[in-house]
Amino acid sequence: MKVLHINTEQMGGAAWCAIRINKALANIGIESRMLFANGESMPDGLEGAIAEQDKEFWYSNPVLGKIKHLLMRTPWYWDKEKADMLMQRELAKVKDRPYTHHPFSYYKNIVHHPLVERADIIHLHWVSDFVDYPSFFKEVKKPIVWTLHDKYPAEGILHYSSEFFPVLDELKCLDEKFRSVKRKGVKEAWNLHLVAISKSMIDLCKKSDVLKNLPVTLIHNGVDTLTFTPYDKMASRKELGLSQDATIFLFSAYGIVDRNKGLERLIAAIKKVNVPNKVIVCIGNDEGYSIPKTSFTIKLAGLQKDQAMIAKYYSASDFFMQCSYEESFGQTVLEAMSCGTPVISTPVGIAPDLIQPFNGVMCKGYDAEAIAEGIRKALNMGYDSFAIRQYIVDNYEYNIIAEQYKALYEEILQQ
């Protein structure tokens, strides 16, 4: 069996997940390779390639350039250049720009890439700006497995989409236009099977007018339990410059100012909780963030790229806090638990699937009071770090996840 994983980036949560699945599949004897859109070279230890963009021929002479210019003015002609222009024009009308993409790409040629032609299974991950919906699904006549790492494949232009992040009125026309392109593209797929990484994502697939008629399987993300392993709490605090006797609440987000992640609501919640010597430690890009005046300490640890160092922050903390409005999964929850740290989370992503009384608390809502109530409940519990970690080891190691994917691949190939 030959599997090709396709992901736009080499960095980021979806990329790291795809890379770990790729390596775990290789460890159980499956030929598994990767195709990226971006990057100067392949990461160490990976087999695969970095794709090249399509060769532009329209502007090779003045006549073709004029033809392209005329085509772009017609309502029926679409490509990435036209979609980019339209997207930028519409986004310029809104004050707070949401995180958006459209379904067109400069990589239409990947349907003929040698790695695509070699593979028995094409496994898509996070593929915005890489997979061209109109051409890819129509032309690839092989089974495609698509792990949904966020909501974008099920929506029109948004990656976050909910009551907290609705489609803005100014973007609704564009959203429906691109949603229609995605519906048509996915409908052309010869054999497409979705993988949801949480139960909430299964519900999303069933409700989505883009994806609702496609088969879907639940396979959670895994975690590298060798990297995310418990360190001595007090030794970690000393190394990280944290108080030995504080109650430490750890918060993590790529950008801590991201409204979705909920740092402001966490701070408001901590204010409501009567805990002596309480500290919030924030891991993530803190550019543009000003620490508010509070009676307790808020420590900015910056964006941490060393995963062993991140494991020490988990180990040094009393609780890991996930306060998001939305998460497709929430990888940091698994990482924290793999280090033996209990989790307090809003009801997003993996939290409803994973959190039990022995490993944390799931808040009943998203506002500061719901988070504060979750903290109060957790403070009155006793947690066994060994039991928290062992549950992750027994259920979420990547060799376990790889076997689940192998079983899915075999089932699809036998159909």
Structural category:
alpha/beta
Computed Rg: 23 Å
SSE order, as H and E? EHEEHHHEHEHEHEHEHEEHEHEHEHHH
Strand order, largest beta sheet: 3-2-1-4-5-6-7
Helix content: 25-40%
Instruction: Figure out the total of helices.
Output: 15
Q: Low-confidence spans: pLDDT under 50, at least 5 residues?
A: none
- Total strands: the figure is 13
Dominant shape: globular
Main sheet: strands, sense, barrel: 7 strands, parallel
Beta strand %: 15-25%
Q: In a nutshell, what does this entry contain?
A:
The chain is α/β, with parallel strands linked by helices and 415 residues long. 38% of the residues lie in helices and 16% in strands. The protein contains 15 helices and 13 strands.
